Amino acid sequence: MLFANGDKVLFTGDSVTDAGRGRPVGEGLHAGVGTGYVRIVETLLNVYYPERLIQVSNTGNSGDNVVSLKARWQNDVMNLHPDWVSVCIGVNDVWRQFDSPSIKSQHVYIDEYRKTLSELVERTLPSVKGMILLSPYYMESNREDAMRAKMDEYVAAVAEIASKYNTHYVDLQAAFDKYLTYRHSSFIAWDRVHPNQVGCMIIAREIMRSVGFDREFL
Amino acid sequence: MLFANGDKVLFTGDSVTDAGRGRPVGEGLHAGVGTGYVRIVETLLNVYYPERLIQVSNTGNSGDNVVSLKARWQNDVMNLHPDWVSVCIGVNDVWRQFDSPSIKSQHVYIDEYRKTLSELVERTLPSVKGMILLSPYYMESNREDAMRAKMDEYVAAVAEIASKYNTHYVDLQAAFDKYLTYRHSSFIAWDRVHPNQVGCMIIAREIMRSVGFDREFL
Amino acid sequence: MLFANGDKVLFTGDSVTDAGRGRPVGEGLHAGVGTGYVRIVETLLNVYYPERLIQVSNTGNSGDNVVSLKARWQNDVMNLHPDWVSVCIGVNDVWRQFDSPSIKSQHVYIDEYRKTLSELVERTLPSVKGMILLSPYYMESNREDAMRAKMDEYVAAVAEIASKYNTHYVDLQAAFDKYLTYRHSSFIAWDRVHPNQVGCMIIAREIMRSVGFDREFL
Amino acid sequence: MLFANGDKVLFTGDSVTDAGRGRPVGEGLHAGVGTGYVRIVETLLNVYYPERLIQVSNTGNSGDNVVSLKARWQNDVMNLHPDWVSVCIGVNDVWRQFDSPSIKSQHVYIDEYRKTLSELVERTLPSVKGMILLSPYYMESNREDAMRAKMDEYVAAVAEIASKYNTHYVDLQAAFDKYLTYRHSSFIAWDRVHPNQVGCMIIAREIMRSVGFDREFL
Amino acid sequence: MLFANGDKVLFTGDSVTDAGRGRPVGEGLHAGVGTGYVRIVETLLNVYYPERLIQVSNTGNSGDNVVSLKARWQNDVMNLHPDWVSVCIGVNDVWRQFDSPSIKSQHVYIDEYRKTLSELVERTLPSVKGMILLSPYYMESNREDAMRAKMDEYVAAVAEIASKYNTHYVDLQAAFDKYLTYRHSSFIAWDRVHPNQVGCMIIAREIMRSVGFDREFL
Amino acid sequence: MLFANGDKVLFTGDSVTDAGRGRPVGEGLHAGVGTGYVRIVETLLNVYYPERLIQVSNTGNSGDNVVSLKARWQNDVMNLHPDWVSVCIGVNDVWRQFDSPSIKSQHVYIDEYRKTLSELVERTLPSVKGMILLSPYYMESNREDAMRAKMDEYVAAVAEIASKYNTHYVDLQAAFDKYLTYRHSSFIAWDRVHPNQVGCMIIAREIMRSVGFDREFL
Amino acid sequence: MLFANGDKVLFTGDSVTDAGRGRPVGEGLHAGVGTGYVRIVETLLNVYYPERLIQVSNTGNSGDNVVSLKARWQNDVMNLHPDWVSVCIGVNDVWRQFDSPSIKSQHVYIDEYRKTLSELVERTLPSVKGMILLSPYYMESNREDAMRAKMDEYVAAVAEIASKYNTHYVDLQAAFDKYLTYRHSSFIAWDRVHPNQVGCMIIAREIMRSVGFDREFL
Amino acid sequence: MLFANGDKVLFTGDSVTDAGRGRPVGEGLHAGVGTGYVRIVETLLNVYYPERLIQVSNTGNSGDNVVSLKARWQNDVMNLHPDWVSVCIGVNDVWRQFDSPSIKSQHVYIDEYRKTLSELVERTLPSVKGMILLSPYYMESNREDAMRAKMDEYVAAVAEIASKYNTHYVDLQAAFDKYLTYRHSSFIAWDRVHPNQVGCMIIAREIMRSVGFDREFL
Fold first, then answer.
1. I want to staple C34 with a disulfide (CB 3.0 to 4.6 A). Which of C20, D164, E125, F8 is the partner?
2. Sequence-distant (≥ 6) Cβ neighbours of residue D212 within 8 angstroms
């Protein structure tokens, strides 16, 4: 498993990551890492690797797109000196194009998205042990849905960037697509974006797979 | 226009109708008829037919399906002695089959739906001037989506019942389908069910059409 | 219809415009444009012109008179670079003379009102496609009521300014006067100023007429 | 002055009397008699007649008309065994005809008003030392305003009843009419009904006059 | 009566004056002048002198003693340019010596009190039409009570200052002493300091007397 | 010390005893015995007699006088089967005569007080190991204050009853009188009734003395 | 895995099970099954067995011991007709003996515990497919701690009952003991009773093991 | 007894000292010194030494360790010019090593603890009459518990420092150890750290002993 004793692992992104985390940095007792997938990842690390002390931090911020994430990257990522950085961004970049089509200042189109995310990766890699890029997703199984189709472009961009920079990559869209063959999207998220605990567990499982979880579950 | 001076018009159904209406009966000042489509209908009647006094009441109840609606029909419809009854029910009958598949007590399948709604219509018609049946809907343009496909059966059932009993009929699914050719469903409802004001205005317009609105808009 | 695809339309004024809008600028999801006439205008544009993307913003501020509006004009109007500006101001300029007669610092008399509003119009016209001036009003049908009589002077001033600068003009006082021949003022506003949804729809309809609404209502 | 040492004086009516009084009976410390005219009356009695102990109670109830007042008369008046009863009712009987014209169940027309109020007076007089009838009012100086004109009928009815049964009578409409020659109605009540402290003091002064206040003010 | 049409009258002091007034300056609609004696004074002026417009402002501040009052005098008195200033200070200067005897930083002894209040009067008189000094008080009829005895020194100091500078003077201690011959102190204030409405009316009456109230009460 | 291992000790009375205790019976974790003198007694027992388990319960009720206490005596005392009962009642019986002189229904005069308290003692003694009567008090050192003078009668009545029935007796008035020779009454209670922690500790100490506290304090 | 498609699984017990579940029965959307171990179990079933529909319900109740659980067993277990019942009770039975030693009514000693739990099992087994008994626990690794030693008796009793009636058995004490060899008890629960998410995951894992979880974790 | 008339005594530390004290400095009426052991100390001084005025202040701050305490020492201790300083710090320095083992930034190890506390003592002694060092503690009677064992090192460090600098010293660990021979730790604190009133009284008693309390308890 990637994370060694003493490592500091930082998760960042939008509301899917935020999930009510503490401010200014989501970690430790009380407010902690929020109630989303980051908490499940932290819990699994503590339950299955109790002999390793791994510091999990969360600086996800509700409403963020890749541009607003970039604006706080120095403060919320670099200055915290993590060993590992996991980032999940892009949902709002696409969503606002569909739920707020007339407010163009809130849209981030594919070129700016690709360019900005690449910059963040380039800037970060030299000072960390590794990065984990989580694809954005839309829990919509109809690939012809306009927003799903658009999201697929952003998913592809993340895959490309992960490949180009040789980071870890988690294809959340594929994971949800698979689950949606069993259950309707409304079972895991009424708005097809914000996952309930089932959705969070699916995300956490994919992250665990990506980082080489190697213990017996039972 | 159907509603005459002095008529009492009752709207009932689930959360789409409820929309925060006052209790026990949604009407009058303050809490009034809620903030959904019923308020827009009431507003249009007051603005365009100021010379007629039409009493608008709302007994929609969040979470209701046709079975729970039936349980309160005597109290919330018959005892209020309306001249006209508009009912919009069925969304939850279908939704729970998809977002809560294991809790079968909350599902209402098509036969029970058809039978129960028919009973309500039969029981009510003799004491009113007329009824308006609003189809349920799912703001999902992909007709192969499992929940949309299931909803179409319920929409068809309402159309049949309206035809059989010769009531007014409003096909909300068709109205939303048409609008979705212009805008993505997330523009009018993140969960594809609860309409924002744009969605409410679409519903209200269809109701106005159905009752024979005949004034100049400007 | 005046507003073209891609246009940004800004509404500003006092509490009648504000109506609980989001801060710092009222637009987009959630807090949005408030619950008053601006929302109805935005809704009608979205329902009837779905093929045009028109950005609607609201910077009305409760309690403002034309002087306090001027103080924030650069920030709340010019800096937002709207294509169209609609302004409705003057109610508080007059009202405070009657409900707070001894607090003269809150009164704006007719000359200062006319001069200040003219300045705002002059300053704005060069950088927008057009302006819409909404008259203030008092939902009082008795023209000899002291406050109504005073308000009529301010209404006349707006009409003059609109004429002089060739802007669009909406005479809300006339619209309400007409409606008050059918219903008592307490039906649309207990305090004869803050409109309920019926009053908001009347305002929205007059604005729609003014901007050349040209679709079928049904 | 009418009220003797040891007398119990009960005020009842609608929201103008209620003014946030304690439940079930508004008297004593803390919640007490509310913050409206009853409190001013009680205060004046305590300041100017400190040698007399006069128990002041308030059972006004927001929203009441004469019919709903009758329904609770046994509990909220007779059972409390007052020596004096002051009643101010009628505003809502009229107001609902204008702000809610289509909801006829909330209207109380003049004949029912006169008959019901007469019944309450007849039923009460035998067991009290005296009654004080306060006229309803509308702080509208234009007597041709439809609601003011209607209110005048109710005011007249109270005057008649007071005369017929020989009770004390307070013409609040006249008192406010006089004050409105100096200040605009919005100075004492934005909705022309619910008085601010200036309005409450005017009511209290008229009551003091009616009961024979006979001390030096300074 | 001292206050002429157009005059601005400012009341300042401690919690007895504050009484929940609006911030930054207590005046006008809504938050207004609080719910204490200032509101009664304002109400009486409006009821009995409706032909004069007298602006009443309140900058009392809970917890203040004469030293903390001095610290904000420029901002809360001088900068507001009042025509008349009424000040009631000294209760906390004394009270803290008894309820917090070990916290000397909160005590203001008689010499500092006299000197500081004198300074405020000297500084203010040149720019106002007149000042009204209200004595502090303790609603304790036992003159041998240690706190009452101490308070009497402060009352005397205010009387001296008023005499020396020829300001208006209101002896609240005497007014309460007289009332306490009729009722127990717990009737007007459980803590013998913060007056209920009866106590506020007594204060307001003394102020009215001091400023030459000259209208008929009824 | 009176209380043996396993004993159940019940404290009851008015707000001085209540002090925010849990409902329906104040004992155990969380809400527990409130924050007044009962908590200090319980704490001292637990700190100094850790080898004895003594159950402390509190059924004091804010606002009670001896008559309302009697009405709940069966439920709040007898049914709880205490070994020891401590009661402190009488403050409100007297206070209401002074702060609410016109509301006679809230007064309990000395004869009824003496008779009712005697009944409660007679009724209880046969089923308990002993009773502790705490005198009421008024933290007023001036014995000529009308309320203090009246309270002295009630204090005397409790002493008589304790003597007649041979119960334990705690003279709280004497204890406070002694303390008031050092500090002003406002130091322990602004309203001369509700003790702060210093006052509660004084009460607790007197109770400890009465029950034979026999451990080293340090 | 024990639970088949269509099975209804009920979890009951005290606050450890409750964890903020919905009322009257914790299941379905929104309030759902709370935020404790039941939610993790439900989540794992939904993630790993999406092809089976298993209804999970929670009727845990904070503060319960086996006696209060018995009092509601008919309503909260039998009447819900579950296929499987999991029960975790006993923590409060023991805890109150240590944190509230003098309040014996809240203690449940070992004999009554064993007898009552046995009764519940006997009464339930005939109408279910199976039961899962979870041992109580105290996250205290020192077996000589008085409360831990006492808890061990209760743990043993549950093991015996499970063996006697041949139910499934989960030894939570053993699971926590093992974890405490890695981390201090304060890491999973400040009070050594209420588990954080790490503790809940440990409980859920043990339940999963007990019911024969047989899928790949990754 | 150490504290003389007029002395100012300051208590500082972490949440055990803080206990909800007022900000910025905990003293005086209302918010005061919190509800923990400082209040009991202040109460005992006021009850038993009423002839001395001793100012008690509290600047404890929840969550502090010795490092964060040092950061505010100038502002919260030196600038207040106390005569005596009592400090209780160290619980969080140790606790975070066990409940948050992976967040090393919140740990303070023994060398830094000893060095920092020594600095604070050295810096303070020259300007005060004396200091009282309270040991940290863990209400855990098992000395082999890892956190207890670690805490013992910190307790020893405080004892050493007190000895080296000749300050007063209070061994709270010893006091609690003694009490735990009678009652289980859960009786005084569920988390073995934050004392209930019994625990606070134990702390206060030890402080009283340390400062030479010399009055009769009864």
1. C20
2. D1, D2
Yes or no, beta carbons of D186 and C147 under 8 Å apart: yes
In this structure, the number of other CB atoms found within 10 A of the CB of residue G83 comes to 18
As a whole number of angstroms, the distance between CA D151 and CA D137 comes to 6
Is the CB of F187 less than 8 angstroms away from the CB of E99? yes
CA angle G106, G110, G113 (to 5 degrees): 70
User: Can you read off the two tokens belonging to residue A145?
Assistant: 């849905």
Residue ranges in chain H assigned as alpha helix (H): 15-18, 37-48, 66-71, 73-76, 91-99, 110-124, 146-165, 172-179, 197-210
Please confirm, yes or no, whether B177 is among the known catalytic residues.
no
D35 has pLDDT over 80: yes
Q: Classify residue E197 by burial, with Cβ atoms within 10 Å: 0-12, 13-18, 19+.
A: buried
- Nearest by Cα to C202 from B37, B50, B54, D101: B50
- A31 confidence band (pLDDT: 50, 70, 90): confident
DSSP string, B83-152: SEEEEE--HHHHHHHHHSTT-GGG---HHHHHHHHHHHHHHHGGGSSEEEEEP-------TTSHHHHHHH
The helix (H) or strand (E) run that includes residue A128 is none
DSSP-assigned letter for residue F131: E
Whole-angstrom distance, CA of residue A211 vs CA of residue A216: 15
ipTM of the complex: 0.96
Structure tokens given for F98: 């002074």
Rounded to two decimals, the pTM is: 0.96
CA dist F8 → F60, F77, F210, G92, G208 (Å): 16, 11, 17, 22, 46
Q: Which residue among E44, E50, E218 sits closest to D183, beta carbon to beta carbon? A: E50
DSSP string, H156-179: HHHHHHHHHHT-EEE-HHHHHHHH
Domains delineated in chain D? 8-210 (3.40.50.1110)
Cβ of F47 within 8 Å of Cβ of H208? The answer is no
**F52 sits in which H/E element:** none
Chain G: partners with 3+ C-beta pairs within 8 Å: A, B, F, H
Question: For residue A46, which of G216, H104, G187 has the smallest C-alpha distance?
Answer: G187
Model pLDDT for residues B110-148, shown as the tens digit of each residue: 999 999 999 999 999 999 999 999 999 999 999 999 999
Give burial (CB, 10 Å; 0-12/13-18/19+) of F167.
buried
Residues A88, A90, A94, CA angle at the centre, nearest 5°?
155
Chain G residues at the B interface, defined by Cβ less than 8 Å, are 27-29, 53-56
Query: What pLDDT, on a 0 to 100 scale, did the predictor assign at position H168?
Result: 98
Residue E63: closest C-alpha in chain H: H29
Residue with structure tokens 């961004």? A89
At C57 the three-state DSSP class reads strand
Cα–Cα distance measured from residue G144 to residue H141, given in angstroms and rounded to the nearest whole number? 10
**Cβ atoms E59, E12 nearer than 8 A:** yes
Q: Chain A residues contacting B, CB < 8 Å? A: 95, 98-101, 141-142, 144-147, 183-184, 186-187, 190-191, 193
Across chain D, mean pLDDT equals 97
